[in-house]
Design a protein that fits this description.
The chain is α+β, with helices and mostly antiparallel strands and about 200 residues long. The protein has a single domain, classed as Gcn5-related N-acetyltransferase (GNAT) (Aminopeptidase). The chain is about 30% helix and about 30% strand. The protein has a seven-stranded mixed sheet, with helices on both faces. Helix 3 links the parallel strand 4 and strand 5. The relative contact order is 0.14. The chain binds coenzyme A. The site of coenzyme A has 22 residues, from strand 4, helix 3, strand 5 and helix 4.
Length: about 200
């Protein structure tokens, strides 16, 4: 059992080390060159209370991390985040990923996110199972978008929508037929200017 907590700046070295191992030895990430802690600082600092970085700790050692990163800087995407999750080699397959997954999804829900997207590269049975168990659905595959270790790689897109009552297409169809559903606006952070009224 791990302690899952918010990552602090002091954890960045351990987080980077875990990430670098995956860069060098797997197709889980399409980064190909290891990162320095200095290089990872802007990534770390781009996270906030709505987009946390969590670490899993066992006996004082960081054995995994997970993050929710802004999907886009465009305001209308503000309730969509991308999930990343990495467990230290030698600690995989023992439930650390599942512990991180549960906690970060809870945090995202509490922070008012609406949907979480995961991009899973190459064959990665452990990651697909982890996401499926957490309620993610396979929504498509980008074919042959990466090349690593001399191999062309697909990226599987998986998505979780929090408390979705109606799939979005249903909303679209409903609107087309003049039916409207109440949408909770409380967590929508974009405030577009109202459309000017026709004169
Ligand atoms: C993918 C990863 C985060 C999963 O974390 P983990 O701690 O190893 O996984 P857990 O022990 O919590 O198990 C999660 C699920 O994966 C399955 N699993 C774990 N290791 C597996 C393996 N080697 N092969 C197939 N399935 C595996 C478990 O049976 C479990 O399945 P279930 O939910 O159906 O019961 C971890 O293996 C990892 O860091 N891999 C390298 C980096 C990576 O691929 N990150 C994800 C990028 S999208």
């Amino acid at each position: 059992m791990s302690t899952i907590r918010r990552a602090a700046t002091k954890d960045l070295a351990a987080v980077t080390e875990i990430y670098n191992e995956a860069i060098l030895n797997s197709v889980a990430t399409f980064d190909t060159e290891p990162k320095t802690v200095e290089e990872q600082k802007p990534w770390f600092e781009s996270h906030d209370s709505k987009h946390p970085v969590l670490v899993a700790e066992q006996d004082g050692v960081v054995v995994g991390w997970a993050s929710l990163t802004k999907w886009s800087d465009r305001c209308a995407y503000s309730d969509t985040a991308e999930l990343s999750i990495y467990v230290k080699e030698g600690h995989r397959g023992r439930g650390v990923g599942a512990e991180l997954m549960k906690t970060i999804l809870d945090e995202g829900r509490k922070a008012g996110l609406h949907t979480i997207i995961a991009r899973i590269a190459g064959p990665n049975e452990a990651s697909v199972r982890l996401h499926k168990s957490a309620g993610f659905k396979h929504i498509g595959t980008m074919r042959e978008v990466g090349r690593k270790f001399g191999e062309l790689l697909d990226v599987r897109l998986m998505q979780k929508i929090y408390g979705s009552q109606f799939p979005s297409q249903t909303n679209v169809n409903a609107k087309r037929h003049g039916v409207s559903f109440a949408i909770d606006q409380s967590s929508i952070n974009c405030n577009p200017k109202p459309k000017p009224k026709p004169k």
